[in-house]
TrEMBL record:
<dbReference type="InterPro" id="IPR013783">
    <property type="entry name" value="Ig-like_fold"/>
</dbReference>
<keyword id="KW-0378">Hydrolase</keyword>
<dbReference type="InterPro" id="IPR002772">
    <property type="entry name" value="Glyco_hydro_3_C"/>
</dbReference>
<dbReference type="Pfam" id="PF14310">
    <property type="entry name" value="Fn3-like"/>
</dbReference>
<feature type="signal peptide">
    <location>
        <begin position="1"/>
        <end position="21"/>
    </location>
</feature>
<protein>
    <recommendedName>
        <fullName>beta-glucosidase</fullName>
        <ecNumber>3.2.1.21</ecNumber>
    </recommendedName>
</protein>
<comment type="similarity">
    <text>Belongs to the glycosyl hydrolase 3 family.</text>
</comment>
<keyword id="KW-0732">Signal</keyword>
<dbReference type="Pfam" id="PF01915">
    <property type="entry name" value="Glyco_hydro_3_C"/>
</dbReference>
<dbReference type="InterPro" id="IPR001764">
    <property type="entry name" value="Glyco_hydro_3_N"/>
</dbReference>
<dbReference type="Pfam" id="PF00933">
    <property type="entry name" value="Glyco_hydro_3"/>
</dbReference>
<dbReference type="InterPro" id="IPR051915">
    <property type="entry name" value="Cellulose_Degrad_GH3"/>
</dbReference>
<dbReference type="InterPro" id="IPR036881">
    <property type="entry name" value="Glyco_hydro_3_C_sf"/>
</dbReference>
<dbReference type="InterPro" id="IPR026891">
    <property type="entry name" value="Fn3-like"/>
</dbReference>
<dbReference type="GO" id="GO:0016787">
    <property type="term" value="F:hydrolase activity"/>
</dbReference>
<feature type="domain" description="Fibronectin type III-like">
    <location>
        <begin position="647"/>
        <end position="716"/>
    </location>
</feature>
<dbReference type="InterPro" id="IPR017853">
    <property type="entry name" value="GH"/>
</dbReference>
């Protein structure tokens, strides 16, 4: 294409889009001018459907009366069409929007987000989110309450499973990738949906790791640690955001004008929808910042909320909204909701297409991707004497532990529209794999929660003749996610007893850990020859894990979160700040515990492979970098083994001296690369100088000249360094 032509075309396209936008603006104003206050407030309300996806009669009545913006949980072309028909029969014919928590899959369930983040492969997350969007949209769900952008540093908090772990850079990459996957370039496309970043912000700091609890999070911690993934998600174009249940410096996020207006709207320029969490507006009464539900509704509106889910406080505030300022706030919120409905294409295509729904759901390509994701999420925590992969000569394989065949648990915490019967378990996958060439002896050995035994036998007797034993322990799906905080993150005694008995047999065995959070498994780490962390891997967890156990896939996952030795160490992260008296072994008067090491059981970024890699120190192209420049360096990765494999090269920095205490190590960049056996691959990195600054206590960002240590390696604890100066 010649340049002038190119220019003309782009001008024409811009003019076309501006005209469309104006046209949409005019349509919005035309609708708005005809709505009563009750109808306007109705647009700001989303009610919940039945867990199974159907609608509730009282909500159908709201749709018929034209006082409902949409629903969440109602899904599938059948139930959504019924409600949509009612909404479109009202005088203004405004379509409903159907939302749902599509967090790690709609019907095809992918690994839990924390597990997916262990792949350190944001492209994988984008592809999984795109499939989730495709299935959702085919079921007429066009708005997901995902991705979760919360940084979580406390494994007692069950919701740690929903995000991408403890690090802002890793979480930002995954949050942005998921937004791109859900939304694509155009959310009106038949295979895309609108994303929602949640829970804004700092809810991962819930005191004591107890869900919904108070979070004491400093302004600096918000800026440095908790805001970046939200900002990355907004830059990726996320159309909505959900304030958290918790309070920031005493002000609940749902009624926090600093957070929702000063930061979100004014500083970051966000123009999309701010949607409440489930009943969060009503809960302002529980926080004791509002005396009643109607006043809570008014406070939320004034603080910056557009849409309320589940509750009706904003609707109940109708009697209080009698002044021009509040009416203007309502109008602006309705404008945003209508714009969202236009952007999603709901005015043109309000109904789903049953044929497309049937075709999209559980498409073989989706299951293939789910299997790939399950395998890529696995982290090989320990592997003595090449216990894994399972040798081909092992034909009689015993599998112990109820989690190995628990179709529901493997789907994890947010199961979307997933059906347990779609899941392929590890037991089924190993049976399929061995076919007539081997035998699988499976004993559930108790329940998947590990707290009771279903049958008297623990299965160890049955496993005595096996060539190889796989023991699956951990948490079941119900033990992770929302409202599942734990004060102890040990394995239940029954599971430990089981592994102990297997260990006493003296046979080759590997432990598979299925969990939604780090667990304190020091005894396993000391005793078991091989441990594979498989998280809750989704619909295709079984085949994915088997691919790794049998060596078809060489594991390359890395921990997105630190595994502590004991709950007493929590919060324990790799990026802690220096102390006045850093640990000196043998010196009593330094920062340490008297009964346990400071170090974690497994550090952030840890994960082994069936091959071994040598990673070079960073080779900087210049050692003096201008403050508006870029730090450029190369790292070579050599695969020293006989198997092809992927390695995740991690680059950390340390600011040697600053005004505030800076992390001893901060992830700044990473790349997952494939390296054939015996070969060396060179990886190029770039870190813009502006990313080397830090936040001051007063909320300003500062970039200091001075020296930095640059570290590269295969985990936060395995690095080689070099240094540079920033001018
Ligand atoms: C959760 C949100 C979720 C909402 C709707 C709340 O309890 O905190 O993450 O989006 O429910 O299901």
């Amino acid at each position: 294409m010649t340049r002038p032509f190119c220019l003309t075309l782009s001008l024409l396209l811009t003019a076309f889009h501006t005209a469309r936008a104006d046209e949409t603006g005019q349509r919005i104003e035309a609708i708005l001018s005809k709505l009563t206050l009750e109808e306007k407030l109705g647009q700001l309300r989303l009610v919940d459907g039945h867990a199974g996806g159907g609608w509730k009669p009282q909500h159908m009545a709201l749709a018929q009366a034209g006082v409902l913006g949409g629903t969440f949980n109602v899904r599938g072309t059948g139930p959504t069409s019924e409600m949509q028909r009612a909404a479109l029969s009202t005088r203004h014919k405004i379509p409903l929007v159907f939302a749902f928590d599509v967090v790690h899959g709609y019907r095809t369930i992918f690994p839990v987000p924390l597990g997916e983040a262990a792949s350190w492969d944001p492209d994988l997350a984008e592809r999984c989110a795109a499939v989730a969007a495709k299935e959702s949209r085919a079921a007429n769900v066009s708005w997901t309450f995902a991705p979760v952008a919360d940084i979580a540093r406390d494994p007692r908090w069950g919701r740690i499973v929903e995000g991408s772990g403890e690090d802002p850079v890793l979480s930002s990459a995954f949050t942005a990738a998921r937004v791109h996957g859900f939304q694509g370039k155009d959310i009106s496309a038949p295979d895309r949906m609108m994303a929602c970043l949640k829970h804004f912000a700092g809810s991962g700091e819930a005191e004591g790791g107890r869900d919904y609890n108070f979070a004491d999070v400093s302004l600096r911690a918000l800026r440095e640690t908790h805001f970046p993934p939200f900002l990355a998600g907004l830059k990726a174009g996320a159309g909505s955001i959900m304030p958290s249940f918790s309070a920031i410096d005493g002000v609940p996020a749902t009624s926090n004008p600093w957070l929702l207006q000063d930061v979100l709207r004014k500083e970051w320029g966000f123009e999309g929808i701010v949607v409440s969490d489930y009943d969060a507006i009503g809960q302002l009464v529980n926080h004791r910042v509002a005396p009643s539900w109607d006043e809570a509704g008014q406070i939320a509106l004034r603080s910056g909320l557009d849409v309320e889910i589940w509750g009706s406080c904003m609707m109940q505030a109708q009697g209080l909204i009698d002044n021009a300022d509040d009416l203007k706030l309502v109008d602006n919120a309705v404008r945003r909701v209508l714009r969202m409905k236009f952007s999603l294409g709901l005015f043109d295509k309000p109904y789903g297409d049953p044929a497309r729904e049937k075709e999209a759901i559980l498409h073989p390509d989706h299951l293939k991707l789910a299997r790939e994701a399950a395998a890529k999420s696995c982290v090989l925590l320990k592997n003595n004497n090449q216990t894994l992969p399972i040798p081909p000569a092992a034909k009689k394989i015993a599998i112990l532990g109820a989690l190995a065949n628990d179709k529901l648990s493997q789907m994890g915490s947010w199961t979307g529209d997933g059906h347990a019967e779609d899941s392929v378990t590890l037991v089924e996958a190993v049976r399929q794999r061995l076919g007539n060439n081997g035998t699988v002896i499976y004993t559930p050995a108790g329940s998947s929660s590990g707290f009771s035994f279903r049958k008297p036998s623990d299965g160890v007797d049955e496993a005595k003749d096996a060539d190889y034993i796989i023991v699956v322990v951990g948490e079941n799906g119900d033990m992770t996610g929302e409202a599942t905080s734990r004060s102890s993150i040990d394995l239940p005694q029954q599971q430990l007893d089981l592994v102990q008995k297997v260990s006493a047999l003296g046979k080759p065995y590997a432990v598979v850990l299925m969990t939604g959070r780090p667990l304190t498994v020091g005894w396993l780490a000391e005793t078991c020859p091989a441990i594979l962390l498989a998280w809750h891997g989704g619909t295709m967890a079984g085949p994915g894990i088997a691919d790794v156990l049998f060596g078809d896939v060489n594991p390359a996952g890395k921990l997105p979160v630190t595994f502590p030795r004991s709950v007493g160490q929590i919060p324990l992260t790799y990026n802690s700040t220096p102390t006045s008296r850093p640990l000196v072994e043998g010196d009593k008067w330094t920062s340490k515990y008297t009964d346990i090491k400071n170090s974690p059981l497994w550090p952030f970024g840890h994960g082994l492979s069936y091959t071994s890699f040598q990673i070079s120190p960073p080779l900087l192209d210049k050692r003096t970098i201008p403050h508006d420049g870029t730090v450029r360096f190369k790292v070579s990765v050599t695969n020293q083994g006989e198997r092809d494999g992927d390695e995740v090269v991690q680059a950390y920095i340390q600011d040697d001296v600053a005004f505030v205490t800076r992390p001893i190590k901060e992830l700044k960049a990473f790349k997952r690369v494939s390296v054939p056996a015996g070969k060396t691959v060179t990886v190029d990195f770039e870190i813009p100088s502006k990313d080397l600054g830090y936040w001051m206590p007063n909320g300003t960002y500062r970039l200091d000249p001075g020296t930095f240590t640059l570290m590269t390696g295969s985990s936060s604890a395995q690095v080689r360094s070099s240094s540079f100066s920033l001018q």
